[in-house]
Design goal:
This protein is mainly alpha-helical and about 500 residues long. It has 2 domains: about 270 residues, Growth Hormone, Chain: A; about 210 residues, Growth Hormone, Chain: A (Up-down Bundle), CATH 1.20.1250.20. Helix content is about 75%, strand content about 0%. The chain has a two-stranded antiparallel sheet. Helix 16 runs parallel beside helix 18. The longest helix is centred in the last third of the chain and has 49 residues.
C-alpha cells in the first residue's frame, strides 16, 4: 500500500502539466486581485476623477467577479471548453492590464475592471473544478497549492507597482501650495487605507485632491509590466491544449487523455448531473432523487465559505482603518504593513497546509483552522489596545484561515461523491461573502466606530464554526442515508442474480 506522500507524488507526476497550468492561472488571478488598492490613487489622477467616483471600480471588480464565478460552470461539457475559457480569460487579463493606462475616464476604468472581474470569476470556478475532477479524493493537497498561487500573485503585483507610484499629488492644480510634505503624507495615508482587497475607505471627502490640472504619473509602466508577466499564463494553457491535441491543427489525432487514462471520460465529459452553472444546479432533473441532506450540505458549505472569505476580505480591507484609529493610533507607514503581513501569512499558511493536507484529513484541518480563527479573534478583542499583538494576531489569523477554502471545497466534494454542483456553489458563495461582508462591516465601522470591526469579525467566526458543526452532523446523516440506500439496493438485486 502506498503512503499518502508517495501516492500524491505519483498522481502529480501523472498529471503534472494539467496541474501546473491550473496553478499558473491562479497566479494570474492573484495578480489581478491585489493591484487595485496600491494603484487606485494614481488611477484617480489618470481619470481625473474624485475619490468617491474612483471607488466604484472596487465594486465593479467585486460584483463581476461574483457574476463570473456563477457563470464559470457553464464551461463544463468538455476539457476543450474549459481550457478554451481559461485561455480566453487569462489573455483578457493581460489585455486589461495593457488597456488600463488608456482609460482616461472612470467609466472606462470601471468597464475594464468589470471585464477583468468576470474573467477572474470564470478562472476561479474552472480551475477549482478541474483540479477536483482530476484528483478527486486526493484533491485537498493540490487545492492548497492552487490557492497558494493566489497569494503569490497578490504579493507580486504590489511589488511591481510600488516603484511607479506617485510620492506626491499626481494632479498638479493651478493653486499649488508650498506644503508638499503634507500633501505627500495625505497621499500615502489614503493609499494605505485603500490597499485592502476591495477596500472602500471611509471619510475620504476630507482630502482635497485636485481633479483638474497636469497629470504626473508613471503607473502605466506598472500595468504594462504586469501584462507581460501574465502573458506566459495563456501560453501555458495553449501548450496544454496542444499537448492534449485539442487544437484544430491536431484535430486529426485522438485526444491524448482518451488514449492514456481509463478515467478520461470523467475528465473530458462531465456526467449529466455534473458540475454546472449556479443556475443549472437548480434544474428539476438535478433536484429529483436526492435527499434533503444533499442540498443542505451545499448550503452549509457555501455559508461557511461566505463567512470565512468575508472575514478575509473585511480584515484585509479595514485592519488599516482600525490601526490608525483610537486607541492604537499607529503611524500610517506602520499600519500599512498590516495588510502585507496578513496576505503574506495567508500565502505561507497555504504553503504549509500543502504538507499538512497529506498528513491529516480535511475535517481535522478545518476544525483546527476554525477554532484557531476564533481564539485569535478573541485575543485580539482582549488585547485591543496593543499594537504589538495586532501584528502577532494578524499573522496568526492569516495562517489559520488560509486553508479553509481549499479544505472545505475538497471535503464537500468528497462527501457528495464529486457529482453535484458543489464547486460552483461554494466558489460563488465565497465571492458573495467577500463582497457583502465588507459592505456590512464597513457600514458598522462608519456608524459605530473602528472597534466594532474586531467585534464583527469575532461574531462571524463563531457563526462560521457553528455552521461547521452543523455541517458535520448533516454529513453524518447524509452518509447514513446513502449507506442504507445502497444496502437496500443490494438486497433487492441479490435474488435476481441468484435466479439468473
Amino acid at each position: 500500500m502506498k503512503l499518502p506522500d508517495e501516492r500524491v507524488w505519483s498522481l502529480f507526476k501523472r498529471h503534472w502539466q494539467h496541474t501546473l497550468t491550473y496553478w499558473s492561472v491562479f497566479f494570474s488571478f492573484g495578480l489581478c486581485i491585489a493591484f487595485l488598492g496600491p494603484t487606485i490613487l494614481d488611477l484617480r489622477c489618470q481619470t481625473q476623477s474624485t475619490l468617491q467616483q474612483i471607488t466604484w471600480v472596487f465594486f465593479s471588480q467585486q460584483f463581476f467577479l461574483l457574476v463570473g464565478s456563477s457563470l464559470g460552470g457553464l464551461f463544463k461539457k468538455s476539457l476543450l471548453s474549459s481550457l478554451s475559457a481559461l485561455l480566453f480569460c487569462t489573455f483578457v487579463i493581460s489585455l486589461v492590464f495593457a488597456a488600463i493606462p488608456l482609460c482616461d475616464h472612470v467609466v472606462l476604468l470601471s468597464v475594464a475592471m468589470a471585464i477583468a472581474g468576470s474573467s477572474m470569476g470564470v478562472i476561479d470556478t474552472i480551475a477549482n473544478r478541474q483540479l477536483v475532477k482530476l484528483y478527486q479524493k486526493d484533491s485537498a493537497t493540490f487545492l492548497q497549492a492552487l490557492h497558494f498561487f493566489i497569494g503569490l500573485g497578490a504579493l507580486v503585483s504590489p511589488l511591481v507597482a510600488d516603484p511607479f507610484l506617485s510620492d506626491d499629488n499626481c494632479v498638479l492644480g493651478t493653486n499649488l501650495t508650498a506644503n508638499s510634505s503634507s500633501s505627500s503624507w495625505d497621499l500615502q495615508h489614503l493609499r494605505s487605507s485603500m490597499a485592502g482587497q476591495g477596500a472602500v475607505p471611509r471619510h475620504i471627502s476630507q482630502y482635497p485632491l485636485h481633479t483638474e490640472g497636469v497629470v504626473i504619473t508613471r503607473v502605466s509602466y506598472a500595468f504594462w509590466i504586469m501584462a507581460l508577466i501574465n502573458l506566459p499564463v495563456p501560453a501555458a494553457v495553449l501548450a496544454l491544449m496542444f499537448h492534449e491535441r485539442l487544437l484544430p491543427c491536431s484535430s486529426s489525432s485522438q485526444p491524448l487523455l482518451d488514449k492514456n487514462s481509463p478515467s478520461s471520460k470523467s475528465h473530458i465529459m462531465d456526467s449529466e448531473e455534473g458540475h454546472g452553472s449556479l443556475f443549472g444546479c437548480c434544474h428539476p432533473a438535478k433536484v429529483r432523487g436526492h435527499p434533503a441532506s444533499f442540498f443542505l450540505l451545499h448550503a452549509l458549505g457555501g455559508a461557511i465559505l461566505f463567512i470565512t472569505d468575508g472575514i478575509i476580505g473585511s480584515y484585509a480591507g479595514f485592519v488599516y482603518t482600525y490601526a490608525v484609529s483610537p486607541p492604537l493610533l499607529m503611524g500610517h507607514k506602520t499600519a500599512g504593513c498590516l495588510d502585507s503581513v496578513f496576505w503574506a501569512s495567508i500565502t505561507v499558511g497555504r504553503l504549509a497546509f500543502i504538507y499538512l493536507s497529506c498528513k491529516f484529513t480535511a475535517p481535522k484541518l478545518l476544525t483546527f483552522s476554525l477554532v484557531g480563527v476564533i481564539l485569535v479573534q478573541c485575543l485580539l478583542l482582549i488585547f485591543y489596545s496593543s499594537c504589538e499583538f495586532l501584528f502577532i494576531g494578524t499573522c496568526v489569523l492569516g495562517l489559520c484561515i488560509s486553508s479553509v477554502f481549499p479544505s472545505m471545497l475538497a471535503f464537500t466534494e468528497d462527501i457528495l461523491d464529486y457529482k453535484g454542483c458543489a464547486t460552483t456553489v461554494l466558489v460563488t458563495c465565497a465571492s458573495t461573502g467577500e463582497m457583502m461582508l465588507q459592505l456590512l462591516v464597513g457600514s458598522v465601522i462608519h456608524s459605530q466606530g473602528s472597534f466594532f470591526f474586531l467585534l464583527c469579525c469575532t461574531i462571524a467566526s463563531f457563526i462560521g464554526f457553528c455552521l461547521f458543526l452543523l455541517f458535520l452532523y448533516t454529513q453524518h446523516v447524509h452518509t447514513s442515508l446513502y449507506t442504507d440506500l445502497s444496502e437496500n439496493t443490494e438486497m433487492k438485486e441479490k435474488p435476481k442474480i441468484e435466479g439468473s
